[in-house]
Each structure stands twice: as C-alpha cells, then as structure tokens.
Amino acid sequence: MNETLGYTLERIKTEDLSAIDLTAEAMHVEACEAYSVILYDDNGPKASAAEMLIVDGCRAGISWGADADWTDCDSPEDAIERYLGIDGKEMLN
Questions:
Q1: Strand, helix or coil at 4?
Q2: Beta-carbon neighbour count of residue 78 at 10 Å?
Q3: How much of the chain is in helix, strand and coil states, percent to nearest 5?
C-alpha cells in the first residue's frame, strides 16, 4: 500500500464544488472558501481529487467522493493534515 506523502490545495469557486453536502453548506453560510485537494503518494498524484470547504475560517468539510468529514482547524493546511493524520494530528469535532 502506498503512503500519502503530500498534497496540494487549489482555491476554487464555491459554485465549482461537486460534493452535494459541501455545496449545500456553502449556500447557508456567509463566509466560506472552497478548495480542490490533490493527494500524492510515491507513484505521483492519486487518481481523484478531494474537495474541501472552509467555513468561517475554522471549520472544514473534506469530501473524497462521499459525504464530507468535518473537523475544526486553524487553516486549510491544518484541515488536510488532520484528515490525513500527518504528524499525529487527529480530526476534531
């Protein structure tokens, strides 16, 4: 099994989100940022990308083709690191 070695974040428009629950959440909040997330392993980029929505700068929903997982976070990078368990970080409810 290949271990995830890194990721890239790209800011996207909220209307470009395809995850239904992230799109619905974006419609009901005033302040949010949307991102496309690409994960990399030792063979390069993984086949599909995740989407992430940061709400009010401190809460992130991350969807990898299914319902989003939500965590408290300090930044978009912190959210992905929590999602991936980098440096022992864990998802926070």
A1: strand
A2: 17
A3: 25, 40, 35
pLDDT (0 to 100) of residue 47: 62
Residue 40 buriedness (CB in 10 A; 0-12 / 13-18 / 19+): middle
Cα 78 to Cα 1, 10, 16, 82: the distances in Å are 24, 15, 22, 6
Q: Is the pTM of this model over 0.90?
A: no
**Burial track 47-68 (b if 16+ CB lie within 10 A, e otherwise):** eebbbbbbbeeebbbbbbeeeb
46-85 residue pLDDT tens? 766 788 899 988 999 999 877 899 999 999 999 999 988 8
What are 71's two structure tokens?
């965590």
Angle, CA 51 vertex, CA 47 and CA 52 arms, to 5°: 145
- E strands, 1-93, where? 4-12, 32-41, 44-45, 50-55, 59-63, 69-72
